[in-house]
Design brief:
The chain has about 290 residues and is an alpha+beta fold. The protein has seven helices and ten strands. Strand 8 and strand 9 form a beta hairpin.
């Protein structure tokens, strides 16, 4: 595996001054030799050509960018230092590669969750290149590689967990977004690590049941919500009735037999749990 290494470069601004001085000296000596018809003019001419060729070694590196240098097809290193740099002028291939943080949003994928329900899911993945050599040489197109492998990881996570789960012991795609985001990021990183890419963050951006079962699952969710609300109301009503009977017995010294307690409990539960307004009925007689 080809891994990143530091390329041999020097400060380009200093090299401009050196090359300019050498160019002036060689050209001046060449002109002097030509005027004097001296044989040394040939040597100075060759030196002027060599110095002129050395200008080709200058190149620029932008912030958060790397330059991958190749000498006759061989990888010789990557330069990250920004500004004007100079290297071996025989290195003709200097490929720029961005080291900036990037992100993309996957398309809406139709997959089955852990319960077999068809769902639509999409995610946003934030990533950057951390090893320019691996990203450039180990995969054919690292941007396309990121897209395909991220979608594969998202599909895998969606298959492992249910869309929704009323049990707190099991993670669900809708109920535990932070934990699921960590699972997605870990699986994306596992796939992208071989390409010198770091997955910084991955979060679900779209989650819904597939259209063919959306209405049925909506009714199921509504029924579950109503059931949970009813359970809470009944639990609260029982506590209120128990407190009312205890208060009557302790504070007002009112002792009720079992039949009156049952009748009182029935009336209070109807009042508390009923959805419609209760019509009071006044009993002017006795229960017996």
């Amino acid at each position: 595996m080809i891994t990143e290494k530091k390329a041999f470069t020097v400060n380009g601004y200093w090299m401009v001054a050196v090359l300019l001085l050498l160019q002036l000296v060689t050209v001046g000596m060449l002109v002097r030799g030509l005027v004097a018809a001296d044989a040394s003019a040939v040597g100075w001419g060759l030196a002027a050509v060599i110095v002129a060729f050395c200008w080709h070694g200058l190149f620029m590196v932008a912030p958060n960018q790397g330059k991958i240098l190749q000498l006759f097809g061989k990888y010789v290193g990557t330069e990250h230092a920004t500004g004007l740099r100079w290297t071996n002028p025989l290195i003709f291939k200097r490929t720029p590669i961005s080291l900036r943080v990037r992100n993309f949003e996957s398309g809406k994928l139709k997959v089955n969750d852990a319960n077999g329900n068809p769902i639509e899911i999409a995610a946003v993945v934030v990533w950057k290149v951390v090893d320019s050599a691996e990203a450039h040489f180990e995969v054919d197109d690292y941007e396309s590689f990121v897209t395909i492998q991220s979608e594969a990881a998202l599909r895998n996570v969606a298959n492992e967990y249910p869309y929704d789960n009323h049990s707190e012991e099991v993670l669900s795609l809708r109920g535990d977004p932070a934990s699921i985001a960590g699972k997605i990021r870990d699986q994306v990183q596992e796939r992208l690590g071989k390409a010198g890419i770091q997955a910084i963050e991955a979060r679900i951006s779209h989650l819904a049941y597939a259209p063919e079962i959306a209405q049925a699952m909506l009714r199921k969710q509504q029924a579950s919500a109503v059931l949970a609300a009813r359970r809470l109301i009944v639990r609260g009503a029982v506590e209120m009735v128990t407190e009312a009977i205890s208060t009557l017995a302790e504070s007002h010294q009112l002792e009720l037999d079992e039949e009156r307690k049952a009748n009182m409990v029935n009336n209070l539960l109807v009042v508390i749990c009923g959805e419609q307004q209760v019509q009071p009925v006044i009993n002017s007689g006795s229960l017996y």
